[in-house]
Amino acid sequence: MLKAKTFVKKTKRGNIIKVVREHYLRDDLSCGSLLCKKCPHLSPAKLSEKQKAVSSLFSKPHYLVIDTNVALHQIDFLEDHNITDVVVLQTVLQEVRHLNDSLYKRIRTIIENNSKRFFVLCNEHHRSTYIDREPNESCNDRNDRAIRVATAWYEEHLKHLDIDIVLLTNDKDNRDKAIKAGLKSFQVLDYVKSLKGCENLVDHLSVQEKGDNTSTVHDKKVMFDEHLSLYDIKMGIKSNRYHQGKFEASRENYLEGFVSCTAYDKQVIIRGLKNLNRAVHEDVVAIEIFPKSQWVGASGTVQLDEKIDEEEDLNAMPDGDAQNSIYVRPTGRVIGIIKRNWRNYCGVLLPTDNTEKTRHIFIPSEKRIPRIRIETRQADVLMSHRIIVSVDCWPRSSRYPLGHFIRDIGPMGDRETEEEVLLLEHDIPHLPFSKSVLDCLPKLPWSIADYEFVLREDLRNTCVCSVDPPGCTDIDDALHYKALPNGNCEVGVHIADLSHFVRPGTALDLEAQKRGTSVYLCDKRIDMVPEVLSSNLCSLRANEDRMAFSGIWEMTKEGEIVSRRFCKTVIRSVAALTYAEAQILIDDKSRTDPLSEGLRGLNELAKKLKQRRIKAGALTLASPEVRFHIDSETHDPIGIETKELKETNSMIEEFMLLANCEVARHIEKEFPQCAVLRRHPSPPLTNFDLLVNAAAVKGIQVKCSTNAELAYSLENANIPGDPFFNILLRIVSTRCMMQAVYFCSGMLPEEEYFHYGLAVPMYTHFTSPIRRYPDLLVHRLLAASVGQDKTYTELLDRNIVHEWCENMNYRHHQAQLVQRASIALHTQLYFKDKCLDEDAYILFVRRNAIVVLVRRYGLESTIFLKAVESQVDFVYEEDKCKLTVGRVTLQMFDRVIVQISVEDCNIQHKKLRMKLVNPIIPGVSVEPIYVTMGNNDEPHVPRPDSARH
Prior knowledge:
Layout: E1 2-10, E2 16-24, E3 62-66, H1 68-73, H2 75-79, E4 86-89, H3 90-99, H4 101-112, E5 118-121, H5 139-157, E6 164-168, H6 172-180, E7 184-186, H7 188-194, H8 230-238, E8 242-249, E9 256-260, E10 268-271, H9 273-276, E11 284-289, E12 331-339, E13 344-349, E14 359-364, E15 372-375, H10 379-382, E16 385-393, E17 402-411, H11 415-425, H12 435-438, H13 450-455, E18 457-458, E19 464-468, E20 477-483, E21 489-496, H14 507-515, E22 519-520, E23 525-526, H15 531-537, E24 545-555, E25 561-572, E26 575-578, H16 579-587, H17 594-615, E27 626-630, E28 637-642, H18 647-670, E29 676-679, H19 689-697, H20 707-715, H21 724-735, E30 741-744, H22 773-785, H23 798-830, E31 835-845, E32 849-854, E33 859-864, E34 874-877, E35 882-885, E36 888-891, E37 895-903, E38 911-918
Parallel strand pairs: 3-4, 3-6, 4-5, 6-7, 10-12, 18-25, 19-26
Antiparallel strand pairs: 1-2, 8-9, 8-11, 9-10, 11-12, 13-14, 13-16, 14-15, 16-17, 19-20, 20-21, 21-24, 22-23, 24-25, 27-28, 29-30, 31-32, 31-37, 32-33, 34-35, 35-36, 37-38
Helix pairs in contact: 3-4, 11-23, 16-17, 17-18, 18-22
């Protein structure tokens, strides 16, 4: 049956046009019940009479029909394994998709899980369930009526089967109308309470949806200002009264936050709980800027949220004289929330003596997330476990947001539990690859097909080798060097051809796109693509034929490019070397074999390429990196050391940079609207204020108006007798930088393509397709440009490519964060039975603390200096990056001695703790100790003269 809707509308030019929309209705759609014999079952039936959970409300089996509010607010309840045999109406799915895309994806995942038996009824195309919108009826009312009509149809259609149809809704008006129409309808809380053996399922219900009363947890006086409506916010932004931006909570002070908005170069600072007004980290907020007379700087005080008092003074401000700060910035307050970016949070329950009460405070692992009040009847078990909690709402009457318990991760301190927390907290996809993904893989044993040797250039007789870290199995790049008769040389960069195996639009491609990157933890790797590709068929292992995508250049001895070409090849690597092994071959002048000579040629050429880059203004920055030695049986860290970089590290880096720059120019020329590139924006000069001031105190002038000036300043910033000072300066410089990001060339003008850190006009990632999805896209573009593959619609759509880039930026950033968190976790495990003194350097000075870096282990930690016993005066000089405590002066870049141990007085808060040993500050410093690190380590004796008084 065909229904036609006709209406007229006015175009932008003022013309009136007639629009006819056709709507098809069918009478052959299935109800989805396995018991029904009347339906044709064109789609697979799912609904059964064997529910996992039995309700005391019904004497016979029942099917659930959910409304939109249940789908939006009770997703954790729906995901529970006890909830089966549910009808999801097309009306509900469409509303959820329109309102919340992430929840829509979660519901689709439930539907695709056959064991859950969730059936989608296309009620909007079913002759018996479709309804027209009545005059003066709102869309919401029409949709609610459509849900009731579909429920009534189910009841009539299946009445001969002795099955109850139950409409679940927390909308009182919808429920009353359903009951009046003779339908069975319950609110979620009543239904859950009726389920036998599922008492703990109540914990999974959203706070705001536990019945019709949204203030079931707190009924107190108003504490926060009311948020403005989206309409008022929109009007205020149009008139420049308000500004929009993403809120970032401070890592160091829970009373401060920052908002980035386009109207100001500097982040706007928000101070005090009243002004923060219930904004949560990463929310998109609307802010009002105070008059300039009220602008302040960051407090410079480290202040953690350790209070649980609901009556805390919301007008309290962070400690410190922020009004007199030399780093004054725009200041304002949050007046509304444009978009909540809440997610599920991992953490622990606040310890309490009374585990029998149901209301508890949850402490998230992420310091920038406020504590959350939840209700749970399982506190006696969960008090010693890591758990996941979801935020439901933040009423004006509550000091903390309200949420509900989702699931138990596992016991605290258990390695698997702690690693699971890291992955969940950083939103890292880490589940095993699905069957649909694995079905895309080639069958083993596998070999290169004969026709590939016709389509590709055969370089198996070329002396190609790879150089990687020890234990690397996903080898995605290799090099070759060949001297030419004309005095020039040929250099080849060969990259694993993952694009041959991962075809666009397949389940394998979509999964790689979702993951975005491989993630490297201290003791394991989470691959972007299955291991059969990453560590076998695509890995450029020695003495095995492998398909590659190669860039080949003829170059002069000075590194000038004479000619270039890109082609798909077949290579056979002669050696898979570590950096140390390659360095030995280069340094051993007695070796004259082709491999050693080739490595020397590459090394000499790399030095010249690097000199040219640095001369052009490229920056050489630094960050502390460590490597753990892991016990093969227990997987505990048994050793820790800072990574040592060799000449060969730089050699490989230079040729990867060369290949990436060359490919970037090529694909941008061929596909100017959809090339996947990588840019590094120039940081605002104000980002360098702290660096310039701190260096000036040491008598070093740092200029930073351009990247070339900064590079020159860093190169010449040396203090005699303190070689580590230059490294410290480069570490701090890294903190001043903007984040490098992927982007689509068609979305930005060419002058914004510039990569600040590398000082190149155009850059991309081509050299690691096994572990980065952007490289795979670049391979596809490059292959199409040289006639060795075809393009496809999505690859040439700049809007789609832009969306891909946004996801890749997010995944790349999260991978960086989880890798750092993994290092922190393993460092804590390493020090759990140790306590030792070590030399450290002051990275930053705060009003009540110092941030130190332990060079030996690459550890960074905050040391609080104010103690109850301390009677000395604290004088903070922000412009000199200096803190005077009594007669002791602590200044940025000073050397100190710290004591490292694991604080385990509270099982829920085990963490690495550093204390000051030297200089000696009464009431703050601790006594030095003498500790032997192990059988192979020398005892460390702290030097008392290593800090300045």
